[in-house]
């Protein structure tokens, strides 16, 4: 055995370490961080156990990408610009226990994408743009205990979507846009202990779906627009901790938690509750938090107060009215103090009655496949020239991709009132007729990618008011179809990438008041009208890369108070003037200015920006200096690669600032000749500058102790998004 071990270690040591990676043969670790790798290296030592590839540019993980490293246990692919996982991408990694794919651009999870990961215990998919999960995507992950899907673009969870996750203990779905959950969405999770659904768009407690979680002990539902908790709304036999904070609750039924007998802690902070009835059904409750509610401490609150005392429940909260009791804590009140006089509470909202579901009775159309268990229908790539009819009425996902339909006629989908997702990609569609989607009252996703659409009628989307995700990438639009979106008040994401749109005019986006993500990359836009984005006051992401803009559209950014990400990469902007980002300075976190041929940035271009900026991409430009960014104290990524810095005394402030950062930024001197190719951080050309002193000398001497404070834990750990740099030296 010792001989075999020695032989294995010898083989590891003899294996060639691929550039630009660092190999720790003793611990079987390989790091290839923040480089320009476009493909998975095929010369990684076979016995590698931990492989860290953060911050590269893979785009696609092909089938069998890791066949050469079958002993991997940990694989980190964060911020690698991954858009697609091909089927079988991780096949052969039967020993892998940890896979991190966070902060990429994955939109869909296909059935076999995660095949071969039979030992995987943690899967991190946070911060992608996953809109839809195909059934069976997790079917091969029988050992998984933690699944992190936070901060994606999920609106809908179909039945049995997590099938196969028999050992899953924590499912993290926070910060999506979920507002539709199938009644069997969580049916295949027998070991689940914790479910995080906070920061979504749920308007009612999804009691039917949650009832399948017999073993869950903690449920996070905070930050959802839930207004009412009805009688026996929650039937979770093992639930102990329930978080409903920062919602829109106005009333809770007395027996709301009667079917959750183990409930111990109830968090109702920051809602709109003026009072509560005695929660007689929650017999085991020990603590209820009501801080931040407008509690009316009148006689109407006495029954609740009496119940608190009798049941020995600790209550946190204070009176908001009447004035004589304002600020008094609930536990300090005496019943005689709670008088009614002339105060009257507002009527409690009545929950809408549940509508009975219509059972599907129709058969599947010829040449199509229907799955009654999953409510799916598929006619993909069947050379159909007309859209088939007579799908079962309970169909929720309909896949009609790759059929030469050419047009979508009026009333093309009769009887499909429960349809949630409709796929019409690559169908040679030139016209979406008015009323084509009539009757699709539950439709959330519509994919029309890779067709020949050049215009849309004003009533093209009539009958689909719940549509939240509309994908029109790779069509033939030369302008945004103005007026077509007025019938889509719930639209969250609009994709119009890779068309031929020449400008964004005023009125083009009329009606999309709730739009959060707007993708316009790869068009031919030269101009954005000052009022073009005015209707999109809730916009969070604006992607304009790969257009023909000659300047930052500053005027159009006014009013975008929630904008956190702005991409202007690959636009021919040569000069950047003063205060160009000032309208979004209070919210902007991620700014992409790379590959623009940028020659000059005004010293005041970044006025207003500061600690909120987390990532700044300036790589592959032509300027020789950049403005003072010393107040960018929240930076996690700064990419200055392939910028020809002129390392003379005018660059000394940048040199000093970079020396204080705990980030790798990739800044290289382009001139003068004696400094060409050297890192700005290490260049000696600054030592002749006026003001050069002992401080700089100490920072460049590794044998001396730095007289600086330790970096924050966040920066020491170093996040490294795609194309960016973190940790280590510049």
Automatic annotation (TrEMBL):
InterPro entries: Cys-rich_flank_reg_C, Leu-rich_rpt, Leu-rich_rpt_typical-subtyp, LRR_dom_sf, LRR_TM_domain-containing, LRRNT. Keywords: Disulfide bond, Extracellular matrix, Glycoprotein, Leucine-rich repeat, Repeat, Secreted, Signal. Residues 328-340 have a biased composition (Basic and acidic residues). It comes from the Eukaryota. Residues 325-363, 691-730 are annotated as: Disordered. GO terms for cellular component: plasma membrane. Residues 293-341, 644-690 form the LRRCT domain. Residues 344-355 have a biased composition (Pro residues). The keyword Secreted applies. It is found in: Secreted, Extracellular space, Extracellular matrix. SMART domains: LRR_BAC (SM00364), LRR_TYP (SM00369), LRRCT (SM00082), LRRNT (SM00013). It holds the Pfam family LRR_8. Residues 16-50, 363-397 form the LRRNT domain. Residues 1-15 form the signal peptide. Residues 700-710 have a biased composition (Polar residues). Potential negative modulator of chondrocyte differentiation. Inhibits collagen fibrillogenesis in vitro. May influence chondrocyte's differentiation by acting on its cellular collagenous microenvironment. PANTHER family: ANTIGEN BSP, PUTATIVE-RELATED (PTHR24369), CHAOPTIN-RELATED (PTHR24369:SF210). Associates with collagen and binds to collagen fibrils. Belongs to the small leucine-rich proteoglycan (SLRP) family. SLRP class IV subfamily. This is Chondroadherin-like protein. It comes from Cnemophilus loriae (Loria's bird-of-paradise). The lineage of its organism: Eukaryota, Metazoa, Chordata, Craniata, Vertebrata.
């Amino acid at each position: 055995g010792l001989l075999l071990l020695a032989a294995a270690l010898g083989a590891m040591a003899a294996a060639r370490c691929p550039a630009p990676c660092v190999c720790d043969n003793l611990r079987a670790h390989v790091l290839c961080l923040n480089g320009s790798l476009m493909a998975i290296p095929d010369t990684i030592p076979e016995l590698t156990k931990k492989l860290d590839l953060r911050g590269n540019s893979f785009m696609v993980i092909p089938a069998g990408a890791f066949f050469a490293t079958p002993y991997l246990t940990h694989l980190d692919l964060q911020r690698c610009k991954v858009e697609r996982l091909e089927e079988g991408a991780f096949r052969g990694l039967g020993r892998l226990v940890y896979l991190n794919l966070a902060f990429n651009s994955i939109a869909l999870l296909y059935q076999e994408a995660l095949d071969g990961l039979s030992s995987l215990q943690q899967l991190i998919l946070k911060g992608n743009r996953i809109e839809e999960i195909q059934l069976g995507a997790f079917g091969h992950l029988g050992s998984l205990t933690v699944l992190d899907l936070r901060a994606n673009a999920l609106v809908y969870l179909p039945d049995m979507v997590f099938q196969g996750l028999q050992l899953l203990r924590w499912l993290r779905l926070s910060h999506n846009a979920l507002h539709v959950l199938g009644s069997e969405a969580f049916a295949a999770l027998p070991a689940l202990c914790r479910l995080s659904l906070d920061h979504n768009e749920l308007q009612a407690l999804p009691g039917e779906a949650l009832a399948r979680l017999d073993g869950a002990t903690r449920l996070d539902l905070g930050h959802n627009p839930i207004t009412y908790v009805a009688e026996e709304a929650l039937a979770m036999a093992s639930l102990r901790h329930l978080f409903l904070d920062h919602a829109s609750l106005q009333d809770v039924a007395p027996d709301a938690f009667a079917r959750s007998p183990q409930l111990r802690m109830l968090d109702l902070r920051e809602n709109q509750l003026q009072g509560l009835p005695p929660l007689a059904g929650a017999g085991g409750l020990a603590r209820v938090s009501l801080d931040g509610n407008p509690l009316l401490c009148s006689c109407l609150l006495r029954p609740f107060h009496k119940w608190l005392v009798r049941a020995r429940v600790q209550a946190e909260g204070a009176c908001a009215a009447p004035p004589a009791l304002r600020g008094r804590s609930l536990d300090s009140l005496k019943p005689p103090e709670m008088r009614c006089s002339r105060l009257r509470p507002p009527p409690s909202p009545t929950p809408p009655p549940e509508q009975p579901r219509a059972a599907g009775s129709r058969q599947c159309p010829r040449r199509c496949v229907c799955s009654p268990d999953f409510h799916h229908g598929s006619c993909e790539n069947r050379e159909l020239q007309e859209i088939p009819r007579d799908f079962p009425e309970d169909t929720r996902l309909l896949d009609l991709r790759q059929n030469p339909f050419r047009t979508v006629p009026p009333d093309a989908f009769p009887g499909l009132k429960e349809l949630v997702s409709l796929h019409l990609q690559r169908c040679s569609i030139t016209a979406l007729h008015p009323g084509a989607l009539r009757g699709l009252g539950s439709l959330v996703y519509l994919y029309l990618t890779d067709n020949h659409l050049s215009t849309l009628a004003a009533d093209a989307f009539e009958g689909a008011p719940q549509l939240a995700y509309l994908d029109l990438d790779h069509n033939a639009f030369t302008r945004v179809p103005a007026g077509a979106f007025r019938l889509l008040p719930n639209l969250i994401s609009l994709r119009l990438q890779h068309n031929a749109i020449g400008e964004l005019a005023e009125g083009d986006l009329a009606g999309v008041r709730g739009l959060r993500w707007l993708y316009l990359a790869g068009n031919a836009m030269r101009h954005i009208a000052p009022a073009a984005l005015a209707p999109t006051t809730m916009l969070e992401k604006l992607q304009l890369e790969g257009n023909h803009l000659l300047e930052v559209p500053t005027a159009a950014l006014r009013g975008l108070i929630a904008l956190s990400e702005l991409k202007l990469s690959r636009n021919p902007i040569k000069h950047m003037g003063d205060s160009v980002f000032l309208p979004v300075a209070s919210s902007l976190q991620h700014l992409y200015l790379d590959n623009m041929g940028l020659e000059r940035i005004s010293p005041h271009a970044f006025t207003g920006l500061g600690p909120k900026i987390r990532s700044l991409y300036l790589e592959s430009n032509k300027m020789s200096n950049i403005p003072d960014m010393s107040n960018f104290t929240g930076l996690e990524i700064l990419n200055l690669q392939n910028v020809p810095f002129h390392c003379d005394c005018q660059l000394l402030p940048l040199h000093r600032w970079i020396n204080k950062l705990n980030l790798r930024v990739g800044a290289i001197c382009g001139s003068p000749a004696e400094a060409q190719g050297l890192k700005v951080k290490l260049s000696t050309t600054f030592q002749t500058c006026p003001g050069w002193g002992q401080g700089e000398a100490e920072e460049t001497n590794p044998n001396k102790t730095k007289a600086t404070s330790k970096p924050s834990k966040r920066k020491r750990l170093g996040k490294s998004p795609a194309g960016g740099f973190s940790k280590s030296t510049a």
